[in-house]
Write a sequence for this structure.
C-alpha cells in the first residue's frame, strides 16, 4: 500500500493548492450533508411538541433550499477541480511511462506497453476519481457520523456498528479470490487485444493464406475464457450486492426501528431523537458499504492494472531518460565527448551473451567503422551509446557521464542516430524533418535534403516536401526512408553521429553521396558506422571487428 500511495502521490499532488481546493470543497459538501438530518430533527421535535409554527416551518424550508443550492455549487466546483487533477495525472503518468519504457523489437513487450497505455492507465484513472472525490472524505464523514451517533445513544451505536462491520470480515475472506479472478480477467483481456492486433496488422496476408478463420477461432476461444472469468467476477460481486441488500433490510428496517422503538418506550430516546439516529445511521451504513465496495472494486478490477503500472515503472526506473532523478545537462559545443567503454558486457532479454568484455576509446572527431557477423552486437553497441540499453556489466561513458546520467534533451542534441528502420510518422516529409526541431527554415530543410540524397523532394508541393509518407513510411521506398533519416541527422548537426547500416537500401550513387557527406565531417564530428558494405566504410579512420574485441 505504501508503494501505491507513493506512486499515485507523485502524479496526483502536482499542485498543493489544487489538492487543497478539492479537499476543501469535499469537506464543505460533507458538512452540509450532516446538517440535513438535523433540520429534519428540528422539524420532528417542534411537530411532536406542538410548537411548530409557520415561521419555524418557513425557516426550515429556506434552510433546506439554501443548503441544497450551496451543495450543488460546491459539487460543480469540485468536479471542475477533479477533472483538472485527472487530466494532469493522466498526462503525467503517460509521460512517465513513455519516458521510461522502450518499445524494442520484442513484440510481447510492445503489446504489454500498448496495454499499459490503452487500458491500465484508464482503469486506474477511473478508480482514482472515486478515491480522490469520495473515499477520503467519506471516511472522514463516517468518523463524524459515528461521533454524532455516540452522542445520541452510545449503546445502540455500539451494537449497530458491530453488525455493520461484519461485511468487512466477508470481504477479507474472499479478497484473495477476488484478486486472482481479477488478474485472470485482465490477462485474458490482454490476450484478446494482442489477438486483435495480430489480425488487423496482418489481415491481408491472412486472407491470402486462408488463415483468417484459424486466428478468429483462436480469438473466440480467448473470449470464451474471458467471459468465464468475467462471470466468476460478477458472481462474487453479486454475493456482496445481496449481502448489502440484506444488511439494509435488517439494519435500517428491523434493527433500528425495533430496538430503537424499545429505547423510546423505555424513555432513553424520544421520537425526534430516534428519527435523527435513524437518518444518521442510514448515512453511516451507506458509507460503510461504499467504502467496502471501493475495496471490492480495487481488489477485483484495479489491483491487477495498478500492479502492472508500478512493476513496469520500478523495473525500468534505472533506464536512460527515466525523467525522475536530476540529469546532467551537456552543451554540444566545447564539451568533452570522448566515448569510452571499459570491460562492457551485455546480455539480452533471453540472457544470451552478446559480447563479453569490450574495451574501446573513441576520441572526439574520430570516424570508426564497425563490422562483424550477424548477432555480434553491432546495433546493440550503438543502442548502448545512445542510452537505449544498459550494459550488463562494465562502464560506458560519454565524457565523464553514462548516457543515463545525461539530460534526455542534451543527449538527443549531442547524438544523432540513423537506423535501418527509422522513425517515420504518418504525415509529410517536411513534418517528419521538423519533428526534431520545429524551428528549421525551409532553406535549411531544402539544403539538407540535397546533401542527404533527397534532392528530388527539395521543393515545396505534393511532389516535394509535402509528399505524404504514410504510416511507418509505407509511401516511401526503403532507400528514401534511410535517406530521410540521414537528412534528419544533417539537420540536427549533432557532434556524435551513430549510423546503423545507413546505405543498406541505397544504390551506388546515393551511397556515394552519403559517404562523401560523412567524409566532410572528418575531425569535426565523431562518426560510428555499422555496415557490411566496404564502400560505405572507405572514409573511416579505423575499422573494428566487434568479434575480436
Amino acid at each position: 500500500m505504501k508503494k501505491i500511495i507513493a506512486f499515485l502521490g507523485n502524479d496526483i499532488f502536482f499542485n498543493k493548492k489544487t489538492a487543497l481546493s478539492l479537499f476543501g470543497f469535499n469537506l464543505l459538501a460533507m458538512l452540509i450533508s450532516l446538517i440535513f438530518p438535523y433540520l429534519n430533527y428540528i422539524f420532528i421535535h417542534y411537530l411532536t411538541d406542538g410548537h411548530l409554527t409557520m415561521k419555524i416551518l418557513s425557516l426550515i424550508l429556506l434552510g433546506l433550499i439554501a443548503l441544497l443550492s450551496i451543495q450543488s455549487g460546491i459539487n460543480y466546483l469540485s468536479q471542475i477541480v477533479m477533472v483538472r487533477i485527472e487530466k494532469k495525472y493522466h498526462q503525467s503518468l503517460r509521460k512517465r511511462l513513455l519516458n521510461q519504457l522502450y518499445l524494442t523489437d520484442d513484440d510481447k513487450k510492445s503489446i504489454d506497453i500498448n496495454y499499459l497505455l490503452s487500458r491500465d492507465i484508464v482503469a486506474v484513472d477511473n478508480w482514482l476519481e472515486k478515491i480522490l472525490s469520495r473515499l477520503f472524505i467519506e471516511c472522514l464523514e463516517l468518523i463524524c457520523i459515528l461521533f454524532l451517533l455516540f452522542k445520541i445513544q452510545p449503546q445502540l451505536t455500539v451494537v449497530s456498528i458491530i453488525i455493520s462491520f461484519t461485511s468487512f470480515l466477508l470481504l477479507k475472506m474472499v479478497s484473495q479470490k477476488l484478486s486472482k479472478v481479477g488478474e485472470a480477467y485482465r490477462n485474458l483481456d490482454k490476450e484478446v487485444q494482442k489477438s486483435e492486433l495480430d489480425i488487423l496488422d496482418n489481415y491481408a496476408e491472412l486472407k491470402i493464406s486462408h488463415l483468417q478463420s484459424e486466428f478468429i477461432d483462436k480469438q473466440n476461444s480467448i473470449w470464451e475464457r474471458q467471459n468465464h472469468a468475467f462471470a466468476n467476477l460478477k458472481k462474487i460481486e453479486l454475493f456482496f450486492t445481496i449481502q448489502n441488500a440484506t444488511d439494509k433490510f435488517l439494519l435500517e428496517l428491523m434493527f433500528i426501528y425495533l430496538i430503537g422503538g424499545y429505547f423510546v418506550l423505555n424513555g432513553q430516546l424520544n421520537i425526534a431523537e430516534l428519527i435523527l439516529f435513524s437518518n444518521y445511521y442510514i448515512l453511516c451504513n451507506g458509507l460503510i458499504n461504499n467504502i467496502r465496495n471501493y475495496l471490492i472494486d480495487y481488489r477485483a478490477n484495479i489491483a491487477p492494472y495498478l500492479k502492472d503500472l508500478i512493476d513496469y515503472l520500478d523495473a525500468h526506473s534505472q533506464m536512460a531518460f527515466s525523467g525522475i532523478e536530476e540529469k546532467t545537462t551537456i552543451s554540444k559545443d566545447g564539451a568533452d565527448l570522448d566515448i569510452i567503454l571499459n570491460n562492457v558486457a551485455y546480455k539480452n532479454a533471453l540472457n544470451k551473451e552478446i559480447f563479453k568484455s569490450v574495451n574501446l576509446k573513441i576520441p572526439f572527431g574520430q570516424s570508426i567503422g564497425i563490422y562483424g557477423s550477424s548477432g555480434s552486437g553491432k546495433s546493440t553497441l550503438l543502442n548502448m551509446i545512445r542510452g537505449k540499453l544498459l550494459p550488463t556489466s562494465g562502464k560506458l561513458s560519454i565524457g565523464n557521464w553514462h548516457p543515463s546520467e545525461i539530460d534526455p534533451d542534451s543527449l538527443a542534441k549531442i547524438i544523432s542516430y540513423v537506423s535501418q528502420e527509422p522513425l517515420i510518422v504518418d504525415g509529410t516529409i517536411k513534418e517528419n524533418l521538423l519533428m526534431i526541431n520545429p524551428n528549421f527554415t525551409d532553406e535549411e530543410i531544402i539544403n539538407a535534403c540535397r546533401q542527404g540524397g533527397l534532392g528530388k523532394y527539395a521543393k515545396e508541393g505534393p511532389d516535394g516536401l509535402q509528399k505524404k509518407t504514410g504510416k511507418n513510411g509505407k509511401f516511401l521506398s526503403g532507400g528514401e526512408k534511410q535517406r530521410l533519416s540521414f537528412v534528419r541527422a544533417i539537420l540536427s548537426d549533432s557532434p556524435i553521429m551513430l549510423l546503423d547500416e545507413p546505405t543498406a537500401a541505397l544504390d551506388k550513387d546515393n551511397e556515394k553521396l552519403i559517404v562523401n557527406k560523412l567524409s566532410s565531417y572528418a575531425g569535426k564530428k565523431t562518426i560510428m558506422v555499422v555496415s557490411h558494405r566496404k564502400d560505405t566504410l572507405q572514409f573511416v579512420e579505423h575499422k573494428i571487428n566487434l568479434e575480436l574485441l
The chain has two domains: 2-315, 364-388+404-548.
